[in-house]
Specification:
single chain; Endonuclease III, domain 1; Nucleoside Triphosphate Pyrophosphohydrolase; 2 domains; alpha/beta
Length: 451
């Protein structure tokens, strides 16, 4: 059932002059509205792809990906028939990869349940994987020009300021009021309604929130709705909206391990890339990649083996060879999952550092090789880090699962030896792409000197 909200005379939206405000808003939009490919051609499929991409992603970033994605998957049939790996490859770099998996699953449902026609009813759209209340309304409004409100970061900020809302915008009562206000912007459907009116109003509200009603230093002098704005009247622009405080990010250190085929005498559980590309590098220079299992971070994507470093001083270290816990988990992974010969495996010195953020974590990723690796990558020149003073301690061989590691769920769904030349063909997590670039640049200089 589609959501409906009836404003009462006691609510702020009932006192708002929507008729005059709409005219001012749409006049502003004619001159200042942004041009996007999904607006130029607002077919429901295109709108759907854009809305999912724009979740957790800036418009500027999404633009390039949108064109590339639509070129490969021009319609729902093309997306539904693609493999998950190929879908992830065309999503690579956008992050939050569950969105890509949900897109593909939704495409399959659209083909099977709706005969490859994008559904136009609210309950049907909302039932699709990855589609919530905002996305359903946006698809129906922008793709079908139907009377559905939208409420995202830009419109939440704009509406909160127009109403001078002084409670946290994420609170339940605030959300009810804001959704009702967003719907009241849309006039009731009549036979005289101009074509594209709902699409234009929601687009104008979004653009005004983004371009004028900015989070900091809003340009109230350029706002077509300034005369209707309670925050402007009360000088509350820097107080409203009231946001829920963000939790402090959690800092962690991970070690990504570059393992060359030459480093392992045996790897019974590792597959090959077929057909193997022609390359001047021998198979000894192939690197070990793993596909993340379901339920794990970056599930379905390929990555280098990585482990969190539990040493409290990890951010200041560049040599992890004395980290017994890390050695235990590396050894378990190589022997039990990779099928390598039992050996005292340790992590060597960090070669370079990749910093990235994922959910609430701020990750310092140290890129390392195995200690005593047979093929050595040179370290990237960077700010010196504190070296360990003591002699590295070798971890004792161990054949039982380390207590600090949960090995009941394997780290890898699949393992492959990947020629360096084939690294760009694999859908990689964002930090893994940067590690792959480093490996390719350094390996070519070592193993393939350019004269």
């Amino acid at each position: 059932m589609r959501p409906t909200n009836e404003a009462s005379a006691s609510e702020p939206s009932a006192r708002f002059d929507f008729s005059r405000a709409r005219r001012a808003l749409l006049n502003w939009f004619k001159t200042n509205g942004r041009a996007f490919p999904w607006r130029d051609d607002p077919a429901p499929y295109r709108v759907w792809i854009s809305e999912i991409m724009l979740q957790q992603t800036t418009t500027q970033t999404a633009l390039g990906y949108f064109e590339r994605f639509l070129e490969r998957f021009p319609d729902v049939n093309a997306l539904a028939s693609a493999s998950e790996e190929e879908t992830l490859k065309y999503w690579e770099g956008l992050g939050y990869y569950r969105r890509a998996r949900a897109l593909r699953q939704a495409a399959i449902q659209i083909v099977e349940r709706f005969q490859a026609r994008f559904p136009s009813e609210y309950d049907d759209v909302l039932s699709l994987p990855g589609v919530g209340r905002y996305a359903a309304g946006a698809i129906l409004s922008f793709g079908f020009d139907k009377r559905f409100p939208i409420l995202e970061a830009n419109t939440t900020r704009l509406h909160a300021r127009l109403l001078a809302l002084r409670s946290e915008t994420s609170a339940s009562a605030s959300q009810k009021l804001l959704w009702r206000f967003a719907e009241d912007w849309l006039p009731k459907d009549t036979s005289r309604r101009p074509k594209g009116l709902y699409r234009d109003i929601n687009g104008a509200l979004t653009d005004l929130g983004r371009l004028v009603c900015a989070p900091r230093e809003p340009r109230c002098g350029a706002c077509p709705l300034a005369q209707f704005c309670e925050s402007e009247r009360l000088n509350l622009q820097n107080v409203v909206p009231v946001l829920k405080p963000k939790p402090e990010p959690i800092r962690r250190v991970d070690a990504a391990i570059v393992v060359f085929r030459a480093d392992l005498d045996r790897a019974d559980n590792v597959g090959e890339v077929e057909p193997r590309p022609e390359t001047p590098l021998s198979a000894d220079a192939d690197v070990l990649l793993l596909r993340r299992p379901k339920g794990a971070l970056w599930a379905g994507l390929w990555d280098f083996p990585r482990f969190d470093v539990l040493d409290p001083q990890a951010e200041e270290l560049r040599d992890f060879s004395s980290d017994a816990s890390l050695a235990e988990r590396l050894q378990w992974f190589l022997e039990e999952e990779v099928g390598a010969n039992p050996k005292d495996y340790r992590v060597g010195k960090a070669l370079t550092t990749v910093r990235h953020a994922v959910t609430r974590y701020r990750v310092t990723l140290r890129v390392c090789q195995l200690a005593d690796a047979k093929l050595r990558l040179p370290a990237r020149s960077e700010r010196p880090l504190l070296d360990l003073v003591e002699e590295p301690k070798r971890a004792a061989p161990r054949r039982t699962a380390p207590e600090q590691a949960d090995v009941s769920t394997p780290q890898a769904e699949e393992l492959r030896w990947v020629p360096i030349a084939s690294l760009p063909d694999f859908p990689l997590s964002s930090p893994a792409r940067r590690v792959a670039k480093y490996v390719a640049e350094k390996a070519l200089k070592i193993f393939l000197p350019i004269k």
